[in-house]
């Protein structure tokens, strides 16, 4: 994704999460193919370092599902452990 266009990235991420059940069990080759064919996306060489950092953090935290949200060191895997309304409630409760 082109992070120089944050609005487009946001819209793509919303759509991808809405359709997560279609691709979440796919391997990385299949996901790359889907992103290229359905969204016209290609790997962005400028984003490789950021991608590697994100992957390293996910591995360190043992993240198994995206999105996973950490609030006050408490882990929530969406939608496996809670739905969108429950996630909103957890965020509200965590805010001062």
UniProtKB/TrEMBL annotation:
Domain called Thioredoxin-like fold: residue spans: 8-81
Pfam families documented for this protein: Thioredoxin_4
Protein name per Swiss-Prot or TrEMBL: Thioredoxin-like fold domain-containing protein
Organism: Paenibacillus physcomitrellae
């Amino acid at each position: 994704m082109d992070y120089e266009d944050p609005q487009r990235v946001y819209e793509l991420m919303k759509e991808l999460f809405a359709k997560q059940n279609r691709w979440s069990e796919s391997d990385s080759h299949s996901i790359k193919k889907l992103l290229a064919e359905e969204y016209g996306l290609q790997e962005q060489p400028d984003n490789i370092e950021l991608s590697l950092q994100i992957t390293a953090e996910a591995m360190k935290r043992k993240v198994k599902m995206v999105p996973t949200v950490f609030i006050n060191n408490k882990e929530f895997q969406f939608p496996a452990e809670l739905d969108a309304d429950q996630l909103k409630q957890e965020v509200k409760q965590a805010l001062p």
